[in-house]
Fold these 2 entries.
Entry 1:
Amino acid sequence: EKGTYPHYMLKEIDEQPLVMRKIIQAYQDIDGRLSIYSQIIDAVTQADRLYIIACGTSYHAGLVGKQLIEKLAKIPVEVHVSSEFVYNMPLLSEKPLFIFISQSGETADSRAVLVKVKEMGYKALTITNVPGSTLSREADYTLLLHAGPEIAVASTKAYTAQIAVLAILADVAAKSRGYSEDFNLVHELGLVANAMEVLCGSKEEVEQMAYDYLTVTRNCFFIGRSLDYFVCLEGALKLKEISYIQAEGFAGGELKHGTIALIEEGTPVVALATQKDVNWSIRGNVKEVIARGANPCIISMKGLNEEGDRFIIPKVHELLTPLISVIPLQLLAYYAALHRGCDVDKPRNLAKSVTVE
Ligand code: F6R
């Protein structure tokens, strides 16, 4: 039930701090340490390469998951779109493990890959929100998202839940491989939940941003570097699917290789700046688009913020920023769709579970 909320999407955006806390609890052992069923950790740590397979928003969570697993557990990861992987499989490593990410657990494109890799004799892990779903039943192992039912077509809380579960998987695998950095994930995810709460309390500010940048525009660009780039892909997908504004996410450095040609007087360009190493270079990209007349909307993390930034998100661990930087982008899409009179929860041409290939 959506209760007092006008839309499921807004309710589900607001549930994200609670979902973070549920996930932390669900993956803690009695001593408060993060823990995952040892058979799953063995399968992950014995693989020489992980193949993450997913579609849409779940694919975007997989891109972030790759960074987390490679940085923390130091296991190589590839991320593939299901519908491409099935017909154009890359050369596989000797001991691959397949990880399917699917909110619904019913996505036909992903299932087609699962059936194929099982036929080839490989093991598979499904990360899903729905226990007993097809992808969960047909894989060897399952990790649950604990996000509660997601009703709105546009995925929000499942995306952040997927990243949190991937972070936990990366952390537990890292510890099991003997890489225990100075990183207390339970504590860091707690800070993320608090930061999410702050952001969910900034709706009026984001609504005003949607009004200022997106009321009349035909298109919108999202630019970021490193982890911010992946969040930009997700921010653009959210905006196009519910507001029908043509939106694209780009790596900041790729702009000058073509896309910058599309920047006109007043084109909205949302830039994410949450990564210290690339803060200088993304701000250079912002200057490039301003010089072509763009209307920039900089969303930065506290500590990296500069004068003129439009929105500042609280500081969290640098590897976990996607969990919070996505929230203003989800809200931006929500309010843009609302202002433009679109059906937020049931956008045209889309279904919640895509059960055809
Ligand atoms: C976007 C969205 C879709 C799904 C995609 C995969 O908001 O909802 O892009 O993410 O269809 O769905 P699942 O995760 O159920 O496999």
Entry 2:
Amino acid sequence: IRSSGGNGIGLYDEAMGKAAAHYLSLSTDLKYAVQNNELRLHYQPKVEAATGRLVGMEALVRWMHPKRGMISPAEFIPIAEDTGLIVEIGRWVLHEACRQNAAWQRDGLRALRVAVNLSARQFRSTNLLSEIDAAIAQTGLPVNALELEITESMVMDDPDTLIELLNAIRQRGIYLALDDFGTGHSSLSYLKRFPIDCIKIDRAFIKDLPDNLDDVAIVKTIVAMAKALDMSTVAEGVETAEQLALLNTIDCDQIQGFFFSRPLAADDFLAFYRKHN
Ligand code: C2E
Ligand code: CA
Ligand code: CA
Ligand code: CA
């Protein structure tokens, strides 16, 4: 990269160089993250809006880098997608989420559904279905205790193949949720064709509730539409009692967000369960 004017390397180039070096270094390290046991799952509680009852949790991956400390998925999942490492990482996440939830159920916790994020690239890998079957078979998790979260971006390239795959997943009794709803480009006609159990309303529409009346109208409409399509709704990123109260008046089914809990390491999640049960 050359700077546009002058003869030295500009600040811009230096920043670009640093970013590129950082990216390269992370992507090299990420190759060994799974085999070196550096990935962890945190679990964020999902509760019933009306009662506050714990109903499930979303598994969110973290990378414990030996030198850099904990790296957020927002930073390394894009790298994992670019490099194709997402397939191996995704397989680990799916297996670990199923293993942990099956272990909790064997320890006598009441049935909770664990939600696992799938990335677009992972969805295109042809053996996803057999990986799901393997995770279920190897861990013994009841299929109805697993939920998979997909995003609207996956709809874009080949909706028919996607719908076929989603149907196969759902026929097994696994739940499907549409994540980050409202931020993608999928049309309502797709939504109608999609075998989806649940819509997760993106935090972008929640954060200014209840003061922003446009957002109130949007969230109300999404909840009403979901009900008409026989889907349930989860509000993401709920941080305040006022947001929760508003969401209750419009009949949103479930709530996830810092108001109840941040994502928790497995031990802390167990403590949360015992306290709220
Ligand atoms: P997401 O699937 O939309 O997950 C929700 C994110 O919102 C999480 O960030 C969570 O910590 C954060 N969050 C939850 N409640 C609140 C709240 O009340 N306020 C605010 N400000 N934030 C809240 P996290 O854990 O950093 O994950 C970021 C993204 O990384 C996820 O967004 C998801 O797209 C991706 N990701 C995480 N784990 C995985 C994984 O195992 N596989 C794949 N493919 N992607 C993952
Ligand atoms: Ca998610
Ligand atoms: Ca989300
Ligand atoms: Ca998101």
